[in-house]
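Hi everyone,

Forwarding the result from last night's run.
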Amino acid sequence: MLVLAAAPRALADADPPSDVLLASDYYLPYQPTTAPAFARALRTALARTKRAGLHLKVAIVSTPADLGAVPAYLGQPQKYADFLNKELPGIGRKPLLVVQPFGFGGDDLVGAENALQGLGVDTGHGSNGLVATAVVAIQRIAKATGHPIEPVAVPKLTGGGAPRSSSGGTSPLLYVIPVTLVLVALMVATLRARRART
């Protein structure tokens, strides 16, 4: 569910998307890079949406590197959407969609508050998965706001996928748990080594 709310203005130009979106309608993750076919699908979806009367901006954020000086917004897509739209004063406020591995955020998407309900974010295919999710989300938003577009084909994703959340994102625990297990394993190995020496 997209919650359209306001947030206090933060530091200007603190994040790469706020610079890129001044001249472009989309921001792609810095790493891993997006395959050309997926970038084309995104551009096609945005172009059709714009022709239909909805000028949508999309920021796809994958890692802290995409957020520059405000990495704390990773895992908080709605708060980041509120922040980002206020970072674009030169072009005025426009409908904005944020896609992160953890879910969606939106601003100025009147009529699309529930458009993404039940849509999970593909977290198992890197940036390509996030972009593929964005293409589907754009089409849902266009339809919900009264600007339906011709369907845009999403390239086939290859390789394994991570669990998807029906609420619109993957739990941060999926990223934290593996790191915790590695640390525990290292502690156990260290204790065993000390006991072996005594």
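Residues 16-169 form a domain with the Diaminopimelate Epimerase; Chain A, domain 1 fold (CATH 3.10.310).

Cheers,
N.
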